[in-house]
């Protein structure tokens, strides 16, 4: 272990916690590493992977995070690869072929990849030593970045016979840690926590009115010109505006957000990593796993989404141990925007009922097949909460995922069909011939007809997909697949859809309240009268931090009183008909019904849901006209005036 640490990674000793984690894994036990951002969590799986006999499978939530870690591994001569959505099918096939041949030690994927039929077939054929879950707090509903698909990871571990798991995160509260431990059966002794206090981070919270924020940012960045810095904002358009504003004031800055083309984002990130660009104005799409050690400043121009997000984002500063400044330009102006993100993820009661009726209609079939996007559109539930709803139905024992498949496979011959047939003989040749004959030919592409293959030739779908993959691997065909279809088994013969709709709606509403409480906990932290570093460490259950750090705004005698947002015209003075009339009219045309109060509230607060995209709601007069008002106030006002 020590030899590998020095010879491969060039370190003569471990950092705090690393040795305990690696030792647990090498002794054959599952473990969790809960270290602050920048404390070397990645090394725990990288070193273990080199010493374990088979492949290490790493599940990571973000492409940027994977690419960063891959670059590091490749620099150190470690055989690692990823399969991600940016790759072509050929590239993904090449990676799988390497893994099958035993030429890879580490394979990085997103959790969604595990629903892919081809990928699951591939995993059944490859021995795996270790499942690594990066950003493992995503597995907990108590966590700040819950990913419903992460709940299935313990099942996947069993399904693919992976003997042990290693969970990595920087931001887990005591509740989340308990959740992770239970789900992966990790002994308490193998949960290694090194504390959250970072002595080199100076935490400043400065109360600034919305009108004065830009000038203060220019002043702050001007004093630190040339230092690597990240400025965090909530919205993509703000990222563009602030980057432009800084550039106009002589501070070279670039925007970075998920709405930009992939190549452009990559280029900006590369410039920042190489020190050719020193200031990035970013939404939280930027920074996950960014391994740049000399970031000197992290500024929150807008409020972060939660204490966990704040901790994760400031954790990108000062990884080299040198003093670094973390500034929050704090006021309550963007509070409603943050809250609106939360409210937009709560499904309407009618939407939940629609999904349950679809499920109910499938009971006679014994299985439920659907595509996520059309179901999201028809139920008017965003995709992430829809996935959460499906997981809740699983947890309540109504459904169990069987598999997901691409509804359509099509292929293009790269060699003559006769030449392809000639490569096989006997029963195999008949099977290949059946695939070719039953596929519907257009000019260049042939679409596979699974039903005919099964009915006329008893050809099992799984065998057909494996054969097509093999043909592609050999370079005989080019293969394309689309329309991901989810297939669930139905575990009940009947249920009370009305009662369950209400129960699930209450679950989502409780989650909504919890998220709003989380936002207000963050405001309480920023206006705290006790040391910020201490309060932050306490939130994550770390009792070791000093009670007075001496390097935060509170310790410097500046308790932040957050200014209130500018006063708004009372809602009583607003005209319901002029704000909602056009939308109500369009809604009645579109659905033949009056919009429910929840939908009207979302329209006025500018919260996008699938139906609004279809109706082009953004272009209707009144959209987002009350986005600066608290959502709950707008909902009460709508309920008083609407007849829905």
TrEMBL record:
<feature type="domain" description="Helicase C-terminal">
    <location>
        <begin position="216"/>
        <end position="360"/>
    </location>
</feature>
<dbReference type="InterPro" id="IPR004589">
    <property type="entry name" value="DNA_helicase_ATP-dep_RecQ"/>
</dbReference>
<dbReference type="GO" id="GO:0004386">
    <property type="term" value="F:helicase activity"/>
</dbReference>
<dbReference type="Pfam" id="PF00271">
    <property type="entry name" value="Helicase_C"/>
</dbReference>
<dbReference type="InterPro" id="IPR001650">
    <property type="entry name" value="Helicase_C-like"/>
</dbReference>
<keyword id="KW-0067">ATP-binding</keyword>
<dbReference type="InterPro" id="IPR032284">
    <property type="entry name" value="RecQ_Zn-bd"/>
</dbReference>
<dbReference type="Pfam" id="PF00270">
    <property type="entry name" value="DEAD"/>
</dbReference>
<dbReference type="InterPro" id="IPR011545">
    <property type="entry name" value="DEAD/DEAH_box_helicase_dom"/>
</dbReference>
<keyword id="KW-0479">Metal-binding</keyword>
<keyword id="KW-0547">Nucleotide-binding</keyword>
<feature type="domain" description="Helicase ATP-binding">
    <location>
        <begin position="22"/>
        <end position="190"/>
    </location>
</feature>
<keyword id="KW-0238">DNA-binding</keyword>
<protein>
    <recommendedName>
        <fullName>ATP-dependent DNA helicase RecQ</fullName>
        <ecNumber>5.6.2.4</ecNumber>
    </recommendedName>
</protein>
<comment type="similarity">
    <text>Belongs to the helicase family. RecQ subfamily.</text>
</comment>
<dbReference type="InterPro" id="IPR027417">
    <property type="entry name" value="P-loop_NTPase"/>
</dbReference>
<dbReference type="InterPro" id="IPR002464">
    <property type="entry name" value="DNA/RNA_helicase_DEAH_CS"/>
</dbReference>
<dbReference type="InterPro" id="IPR014001">
    <property type="entry name" value="Helicase_ATP-bd"/>
</dbReference>
<keyword id="KW-0413">Isomerase</keyword>
<dbReference type="Pfam" id="PF16124">
    <property type="entry name" value="RecQ_Zn_bind"/>
</dbReference>
<keyword id="KW-0378">Hydrolase</keyword>
<keyword id="KW-0347">Helicase</keyword>
<dbReference type="InterPro" id="IPR036388">
    <property type="entry name" value="WH-like_DNA-bd_sf"/>
</dbReference>
């Amino acid at each position: 272990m020590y030899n590998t640490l020095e010879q491969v990674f060039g370190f003569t000793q471990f950092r705090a916690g690393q040795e305990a984690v690696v030792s647990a894994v090498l002794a054959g036990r599952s473990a969790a590493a809960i270290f602050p951002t920048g404390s070397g969590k990645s090394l725990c799986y990288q070193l273990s992977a080199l010493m374990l006999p088979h492949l290490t499978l790493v599940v990571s939530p973000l492409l940027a995070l994977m690419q960063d870690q891959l670059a590091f591994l490749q620099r150190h001569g470690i055989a690692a690869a990823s399969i991600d959505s940016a790759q072509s099918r050929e590239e993904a096939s090449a990676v799988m072929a390497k893994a099958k041949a035993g030429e890879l030690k580490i394979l990085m994927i997103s959790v969604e990849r595990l629903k892919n039929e081809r990928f699951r077939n591939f995993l059944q054929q490859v021995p795996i030593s270790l499942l690594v879950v990066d950003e493992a707090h995503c597995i907990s509903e108590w966590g700040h970045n819950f990913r419903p698909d992460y709940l299935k990871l313990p099942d996947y571990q069993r399904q693919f016979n992976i003997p042990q798991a290693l969970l990595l995160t920087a931001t887990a509260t005591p509740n989340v840690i308990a959740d992770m431990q239970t789900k992966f059966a990790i002994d308490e002794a193998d949960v290694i926590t090194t504390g959250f206090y970072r002595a080199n981070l100076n935490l400043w919270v400065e109360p600034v009115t919305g009108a004065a924020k830009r000038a203060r940012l220019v002043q702050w960045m001007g004093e630190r010109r040339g230092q690597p810095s990240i400025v965090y904002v909530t919205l993509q358009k703000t990222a563009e505006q602030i980057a432009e504003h800084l550039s106009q004031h002589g501070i070279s800055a670039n925007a970075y957000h998920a709405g930009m083309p992939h190549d452009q984002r990559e280029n900006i990130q590369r410039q920042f990593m190489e020190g050719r660009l020193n200031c990035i104005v970013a939404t939280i799409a930027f920074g996950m796993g960014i391994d740049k050690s000399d970031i000197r400043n992290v500024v929150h121009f807008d409020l972060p989404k939660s204490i966990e997000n704040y901790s994760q984002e400031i954790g990108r500063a000062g990884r080299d141990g040198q003093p670094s400044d973390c500034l929050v330009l704090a006021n309550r102006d963007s509070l409603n925007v943050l809250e609106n993100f939360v409210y937009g993820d709560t499904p309407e009661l009618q939407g939940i009922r629609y999904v349950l009726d679809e499920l109910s209609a499938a009971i006679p079939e014994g299985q439920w097949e659907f595509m996520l996007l059309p179901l999201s559109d028809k139920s008017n539930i965003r995709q992430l909460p829809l996935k959460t709803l499906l997981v809740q139905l699983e947890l309540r024992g109504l459904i169990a995922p069987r598999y997901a498949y691409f509804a359509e496979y099509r292929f293009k011959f790269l060699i003559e069909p006769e030449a392809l047939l000639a490569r096989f003989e006997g029963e195999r040749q008949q099977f290949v011939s059946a695939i070719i004959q039953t596929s519907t030919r257009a000019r260049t592409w042939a679409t596979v007809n699974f039903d005919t293959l099964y009915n006329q030739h008893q050809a099992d779908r799984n065998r057909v997909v494996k054969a097509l993959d093999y043909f592609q691997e050999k370079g005989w065909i080019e293969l394309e697949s689309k329309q991901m279809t989810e297939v669930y088994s139905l575990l009940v013969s009947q249920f009370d859809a009305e009662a369950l709709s209400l129960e699930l709606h209450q679950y989502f509403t409780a989650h909504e309240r919890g998220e709003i409480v989380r936002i207000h906990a963050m405001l309480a932290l920023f206006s705290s009268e006790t040391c910020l570093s201490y309060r932050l460490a306490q939130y994550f259950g770390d009792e070791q931090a000093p009670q007075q750090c001496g390097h935060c705004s509170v310790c410097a005698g500046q308790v932040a009183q957050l200014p209130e947002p500018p006063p708004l015209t009372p809602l009583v003075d607003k005209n319901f008909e002029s704000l909602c009339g056009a939308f109500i009219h369009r809604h009645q045309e579109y659905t033949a019904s009056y919009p429910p109060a929840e939908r009207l509230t979302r329209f006025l607060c500018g919260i996008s849901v699938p139906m609004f995209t279809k109706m082009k709601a953004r272009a209707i007069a009144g959209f987002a006209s009350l986005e600066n008002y608290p959502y709950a106030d707008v909902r009460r006002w709508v309920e008083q005036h609407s007849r829905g």
